[in-house]
Amino acid sequence: xxxxxxxxxxxxxxxxxxxxxxxxxxxxxxxxxxxxxxxxxxxxxxxxxxxxxxxxxxxxxxxxxxxxxxxxxxxxxxxxxxxxxxxxxxxxxxxxxxxxxxxxxxxxxxxxxxxxxxxxxxxxxxxxxxxxxxxxxxxxxxxxxxxxxxxxxxxxxxxxxxxxxxxxxxxxxxxxxxxxxxxxxxxxxxxxxxxxxxxxxxxxxxxxxxxxxxxxxxxxxxxxxxxxxxxxxxxxxxxxxxxxxxxxxxxxxxxxxxxxxxxxxxxxxxxxxxxxxxxxxxxxxxxxxxxxxxxxxxxxxxxxxxxxxxxxxxxxxxxxxxxxxxxxxxxxxxxxxxxxxxxxxxxxxxxxxxxxxxxxxxxxxxxxxxxxxxxxxxxxxxxxxxxxxxxxxxxxxxxxxxxxxxxxxxxxxxxxxxxxxxxxxxxxxxxxxxxxxxxxxxxxxxxxxxxxxxxxxxxxxxxxxxxxxxxxxxxxxxxxxxxxxxxxxxxxxxx
Amino acid sequence: xxxxxxxxxxxxxxxxxxxxxxxxxxxxxxxxxxxxxxxxxxxxxxxxxxxxxxxxxxxxxxxxxxxxxxxxxxxxxxxxxxxxxxxxxxxxxxxxxxxxxxxxxxxxxxxxxxxxxxxxxxxxxxxxxxxxxxxxxxxxxxxxxxxxxxxxxxxxxxxxxxxxxxxxxxxxxxxxxxxxxxxxxxxxxxxxxxxxxxxxxxxxxxxxxxxxxxxxxxxxxxxxxxxxxxxxxxxxxxxxxxxxxxxxxxxxxxxxxxxxxxxxxxxxxxxxxxxxxxxxxxxxxxxxxxxxxxxxxxxxxxxxxxxxxxxxxxxxxxxxxxxxxxxxxxxxxxxxxxxxxxxxxxxxxxxxxxxxxxxxxxxxxxxxxxxxxxxxxxxxxxxxxxxxxxxxxxxxxxxxxxxxxxxxxxxxxxxxxxxxxxxxxxxxxxxxxxxxxxxxxxxxxxxxxxxxxxxxxxxxxxxxxxxxxxxxxxxxxxxxxxxxxxxxxxxxxxx
Lengths: 495, 495
Hints:
2 copies of one chain form a homodimer.
Chain A: H1 8-22, E1 30-31, H2 34-37, E2 54-56, H3 61-74, E3 78-81, E4 98-101, E5 108-112, E6 117-120, H4 126-133, E7 138-139, H5 152-158, H6 165-168, H7 171-174, E8 175-181, E9 187-191, H8 203-206, E10 215-222, E11 224-225, E12 229-237, H9 240-252, E13 259-264, H10 265-275, E14 285-293, H11 295-311, E15 316-319, H12 323-334, H13 336-343, E16 346-349, E17 352-353, H14 359-373, E18 376-382, E19 387-394, H15 401-418, H16 436-440, H17 443-456, H18 471-477, E20 481-483, E21 486-488
Parallel strand pairs in A: 2-4, 3-4
Antiparallel strand pairs in A: 1-2, 5-6, 6-10, 7-11, 8-9, 8-10, 12-14, 12-15, 13-14, 13-18, 16-19, 17-19, 18-19, 20-21
């Protein structure tokens, strides 16, 4: 992406904004020299870079309110930023905009072990919550792979998942309440400590809204008890279709494993020399099925899962015999991305979600695309919730390979939508997938999104041009809209 | 409530609307003679009655679209209606409005046993879903006590619960997707068959929106496997505070019972002569704790719950020894409302929700109010999720008792909010509790609700004056807003 350079107009706006911010923030919380703003030019999607006009780091809610009031008055767009670990460019700055970092809002406000909740500021790291409550035998369940670094504010913005989300839910299922500063500087609380609440349920809209509706200043999360025991089954399959169907069978049997992950042979052969996880590298597909709970629950569930997997055609089954072995089985899955980086000069990680029962069909489709594009694809996924992470391998130095990889990725996402799935599982839309939104949603649905966005942020200053494409953009992209496997040509844009 | 009579203006509007509806609906789907519209004058909140101008019963989605387009054009307000079993007056008609009944949209469209989902039209009864999928060993979990009669469309509108919602969730947790006709006649699909979806999460806003955002024409629900075994513990306590604390201890121990219900002595003595459930009528409080799952899971969980309840001070514990005994233990709880009707000329059923840990405190507060108002109150509740149903008993024929009961009820709800709870658990706001919304929410929060309402229904034609009070109404009501136990005087209304 080409950066926009600062011209005289941006420099004038910058002076105006910095001057106003100095009235409400301490000097050390305002950054605008290039050497200070450079670290904020991208998030985890490093292909998109843009130097922001100003960065600010408020230290309490009142400062957040003051910043939003200033930006409303001066009509400055704001890009909210957590730890910057996002993979879809949701925190990519705007050349004439402000980056509002929540890094300094990092206090754990209150832990209530009896009610099993914690109230924390958005800059608290995901793993720091679990560490703080470990003494009570509790933890915070959603565990994105970036959990050492990512913060709860970013998790709320992206509705982050992790390997345990099949059983324990995504961020939206583990957050009870948020305090939010709206663009006019007013504070609202969304959600409630109770199971149900009257009024419109705006908490779930806020979670996953990618910074477009307001700035979160406090998050009340649910905590869950640490399980006494956990064991994992490694099951081998002679073909990916049988493995895919076995996933559907486990779920259809009424079992909700603590984790249910699948890797194809390309993936297991890729990681085994690297981490020595003990994988069956002759199998076309490997399933990892975890059970957690009390000793009796785990014993019974492992027995039931084993029976279902055998019935579904597993060619071999191994159960972890110790905590060390359990962690070793998982180490292969968790190191799939770095392993891809060892065997291929470049790779492109996709993130799509499909109905579980269509898994076998989508795997077959991806195999056909490998031939069509002449590129290899390693498939690892959160199979239990149908969240695919195909890793397309290519060499950017070979003429045309990057473009082929991009087209391959786009075709995978279109297949996901065609079988009734979605274009993202847990990485968000950001700027990376904004064109794919035109494929996923009808014009009426995009209009509904914009109407709600406008209800919170009338002037459209919060993270503009992310997550929801304008109809104009969709018209330019010119892709068809696919709904329930039916092709549907987009209506003409309204302008 | 005083009914508004039909004057010449309403009669003129009626002629106009009926004429337009005849262009798009069969004759038998349009009702406007008083003898035909009389059955629609109220829902389960029978104190509020109003004859509607017209009732219509569309038979497919295209007819729903046509009706909404006509009402948009003629600016006719619409009250959507399911089975009319609601308890908060959400389906109370408007004198110059249309009642849109979903009763004829009653097809089960598709059952997918492998994916464990069912796609149904809104007029399908809650229990009919479970009956239709019983052959697959599945059922639909949310079970409001009206489940024989109430329909899934109404459940979606009210976000209905039931005794199993502690473990299995409310309606919002059991619905994957809805098809909705918006006021301009356009159709959108909210939600997805996948765990997560890109774009704003509007499904959760729609569920529980009490008919204010659109008309649902199709609902995709999750199905769950029927448990192999269920058993229930009946635990006695010598005082309600100890019983209330025991509820918090069960949850704090990391157990999620399939049901966790509490009754005080007034309630158990009220129902025992009526149903002979075998209750300990000397106990000040009785807890019913259910476990379901496989035989091994249930055995282990019953043992753990027994240990926690003993530790928490239970004076006696009994475990159901057969399915017949289990159903008998539950029969008392489920017949509490009819039993109240036998011993008291009138009763007023409240529906508030509080954080579980504040249960003992709220019970003590209600006991003090009994003295203050000179009225008895039987307390039954979905204790596990903190949803109280205090039954205030009174005799409307005694001078002043109705007003005292009403004031008693309002004070209970204000106590619920003061301890961090809400004014409704599962019965909705409707028109009954609309004033209490002024106590629950700040002006900024009510503004946010209205902004979202307007994003879906610009002209405000869908179920106006329900669920969300106007700021003008709150100003007239003049009650203080209580947040987190802190009194806060309302800001001046903005007009």
